[in-house]
Amino acid sequence: MGSTFPSLGARGCGIPLRRSPGLCAIIHYLTRGQLGWFGLTVACVVPGYAAQLLSILWFRADGCPPGCCLLVLHILQLGIWKRYWDVLWMAVKTGGGARAGEVLTQHGDVCVLRLLEALLQTLPHLLLQAYVVVAVDPAGFVPGVSAGLSLLSLAWALVSYNRFACLLKPGHLCPPATAILCLLLWRTGMLATRVLALVLFARLYSFWVFAVAGVHWLLMSFWLVAQQTDIVAQPCRWRLFNCLVGAIYIFCYVNVRPGPSKHRVAVFYAVST
């Protein structure tokens, strides 16, 4: 298990960098007086606090009541960076020893929270900046760079989640760097094509894009219900979970169930393409 820990440092160092695309776009619109796009870009930041709130609740559930410093970090949306740092520090201290299982568990919490933050915050920001580049300001450098970096950030969050899910399987080792790179390229290309298709549809047909996305969302949600996904026990939370994952399936497939997934992946891409 020790071989899975050295790559944590690179991921932890990348956490503050993902703030730059959104911050640069906010400053760009504010300095140019484009208050409408400025307000929408700021609004994309708000959903990310759901992941920060969940992180605080998990700290409390783990027997670590959040103090003032920890609360400030989460308010600044640095709570997940703090978790990355804790996992890296724990991995260095244990050296892959007796607490390797605890390190893997904490790493899994970070991957799940990072994926949730990326889907709730990075994805809306990506859609907004891509629309600005396609429909409003094709020569806009800052929105284009912001969209590109957001795309890479979202793809990397999905790859990190897939890597952790692979490590959980009995007998599976850490995927090699070439496999991770191929997975990153695949996720990036898949997300780029879907985002571009939605943006172009919105450019041509305006608000009809919400109708198309809504139908896709309902189909995917009903499909998840038909699979009897039992990850969440409470009925109300189970329905909410299926609805949230159904919305994610508008853009990409995320395996949320144990066991072989090749048939589910085939059905998903057969419907989505």
TrEMBL record:
The chain crosses the membrane at residues 37-59, 66-84, 141-159, 207-226, 238-256. The keyword Membrane applies. The keyword Oxidoreductase does not apply. Coiled coil: none annotated. It comes from the Eukaryota. One of its GO terms (cellular component) is plasma membrane. Keywords: Cell membrane, Membrane, Transmembrane, Transmembrane helix. InterPro entries: XK-rel, XK-related_scramblase. It is found in: Cell membrane; Membrane. It is a multi-pass membrane protein. Belongs to the XK family. This is XK-related protein. It comes from Corythaixoides concolor. The lineage of its organism: Eukaryota, Metazoa, Chordata, Craniata, Vertebrata. The gene is Xkr5.
